[in-house]
C-alpha cells in the first residue's frame, strides 16, 4: 500500500491519506500524554508558532506561556463532545487569542491543534436565514441551488458546487454558484476513482475539510511516529491534516488555491459533497467551518426527506396506474390504453426514457425505443434470462453483442414479464449516459488521459469518466426495480382476468 505522498496514478486508490505525517502550515499541532501533560509529538513549526525557542518535545503543557494548560485541564480524561472539542485560549508570551481543537488520536494521545482566532463574526442571523432556505426547498434541484447560493454567501469562495454521487460512486456537478467570469462545471461528470474509497470513508467521519493554500509546504510531525503506537499518527480527525499531493496537484491544475469541502451524509452513506473553490489562498476560521458543518447536516436531512417523498410518489404512481388499467378495461375494454395514453404515466415510476409492451404479438411503445423488429428479438433474448420477477441490465450491448447497435438509446434495459407466455414483456429503456453530458468547449477534442498527475484536470477526469461508462446507462436503483416488479404484478393480474373473461365470452 502506498504511503502518504508516495502514490502515483496507478495506485492512488490506496494511498494512506489519514497517515499524512504532516500538516498545513496555517496552524500548529501538539500531541500530549494525558497522564503527565508532556508534549510527545509536535509539528516542526510549533515552537515558532507559540513564540518559543526550539525544543518543545518532553516539555509540559503547564510550562507553556498563556492559559492553554488551564483551558485544556477540564477536558483531560473526559469524553470529548462529538469526538472533537473547540476551546478559545491565549497562548505564547503575547497571550494572543487562539482556537485549540482537541481530539484523541485512535491509538492514544491528546491532539491539540492551534489556529489563530479569526475576526469576530456574528453568524446567528445568516445561519438562521440559511436554515429556513434549506427547509423551504421542495425539490432536490431547488435545494441544491439554494445550498450553493447559501454556502457562497456564507463562505465567500469563488465557486461552490454540489457534487452528487450515483450508485456506482461516479460524481456529477449537480448545482453551482460561481463568480460570473468563471467557466461553468455544471452538469459535468467525473469517475468514481477521482475520490478514492479511503478518502470517502474519511469524509464520513471528518465532515468539513479545508485546503488553505495549494502552494503550501507541508510541515512534518516530529518525531514522525507516535510514541503510543510506534506507528504513524492517525490524522483522520485532524483539521490541519496535509492533503494528498495528487489531489493538491489536481487543484493546482485547475488553478484552484483553496478549498472547503463538506460531506453530505444521507441514510448513513456519502450522498455527495458541497465543494467550495477559491482562486487565492483562503483560511476559513473555525466558526465558519462549524456553521458549514451544521448547514451541511441540515441539507442532508432535507435530502433524506425529499428522497423519501420521491419514493412515496413513485409507489403512488404505480397504484394509480393499476387503477387506471382497471378503469380502462371497464370503459374501453382494453387495459393497455391506460399505459399508453400519455408517456409519463409509464416512464416516470422507473425514470426511463422509453418503454415497450410486447403482448399477444403486438408492440406498443412510448418515448424513445428501438424499432419493432429489434423489440421482438429483445423479447426472445429476455425469455432466456427470465429467472426472477425483473430482468435488468445497464449495458445491453456488452451482455448481448447482437444488440450493440441499440446502445445509444437502449444501454439500460429493465423488463418485467406481463404473463406466463414467452415473449410477453413490459420493457423500459435508458440511453447510454455519455450522450446526455454537456461540456464547455469542444466535446470531441481528444483529451490525453495519461499516468502523470500533471495531466489531471476536470477535462481529463471527464474523459476518463467517458471511458469508464461507455456503453452503459445510469444504474437502475432498488426503487426502480421495485416499481417495475409491482407494475409487472399488476399487469399480470389484469391480464389473467382479461383472458379469463375473454374465454368465458368465447364459450
Ligand atoms: C479527493 N477529489 C477529491 C475530492 C474531490 C475530488 C471533490 C475531495 C476533496 C475534499 O473533500 O477536500 C475531485 N474535485 C474533484 C473533481 C472536481 C473537483 C473531479 O472540484 C471537478 C470539478 N484524484 C484523481 C485521481 C486520483 C485522485 C485519478 O483525480 C487517484 C486515484 C486522488 N482525490 C484523490 C485523493 C483525494 C481526492 C487521494 C483525497 C484528498 C485528501 O483528503 O487528502
UniProtKB/TrEMBL annotation:
One of its GO terms (biological process) is regulation of DNA-templated transcription. Keywords: Chromophore, Photoreceptor protein, Receptor, Sensory transduction. Residues 139-297 form the Phytochrome chromophore attachment site domain. It comes from Rhodovastum atsumiense. GO terms for molecular function: photoreceptor activity. This is GAF domain-containing protein.
